[in-house]
Design goal:
The protein is of the alpha+beta class and about 230 residues long. The protein has two domains: about 35 residues; about 180 residues, no CATH class. Helix content is about 20%, strand content about 45%. Strands 4-5-6-7 form a four-stranded antiparallel sheet. The chain has a four-stranded antiparallel sheet with strand order 8-11-12-13, with no helix packed on it. Strand 11 and strand 12 form a beta hairpin. About 25% of the residues are buried.
Amino acid sequence: MLSLQKFSEKNMRIFLIAFLLATFAAGVSAQTASKIRLLNAGSGKVTVVRNKARATINLSREVAGCGYANAATKKNFKDCAAPSAEFHLIDATVKNNQTYLLIASEAMGNCNVCGQCGADESFALIWLKLDRNLRVLDKKGVPIDYCRFDIDLISAVVDFKEETQDESLNLKFKDDRLEIDFEKKTFEANSERSYYEFSHLEYNRKTPEKGFVIKTERREKSSVPEQ
């Protein structure tokens, strides 16, 4: 009986040690994530800073709209040349020595702001998977509001500042999940008949390695609320 009691006490100590180690590891991960900074570097790029590590990453291909206006565009359109896209860090998670970032991009709809959809701001969500040295292992951009591609945001809130005439996404997590609905107007091949691709996007900060989980369905009518 005494041996059984010692065995149980030993197992209990092992359990407590394992629990404390797991708690400590989770705390380190959260603390490390909170120290990650994202800086706008211009020309469709961002600089990620984590402790002493620093890396500049080109996200111009993941941006919805104009990532940046090149020299030729600035010369040809002058006052109509769009500014570089801006990036905002929405979430950062460190897991298994890998860093996962959720970033929102804001850009003008056209590098020529006087052209089609140029005055509209476009938004995209960007997912990054980085190694311990902040090198890019994987990335994906999803346009969620983009006039030129007939993509409209449905569920997320867009804040508008009258003093600057700027728009910005107001994204909030609920139970560690971010959920966004958007739709794309599409025309059938060789026909003027249109339909809508309704998409529901989810991102879970507890499983950041999965990236975006998107479910899309066809709808005959638009889901965008009438104004």
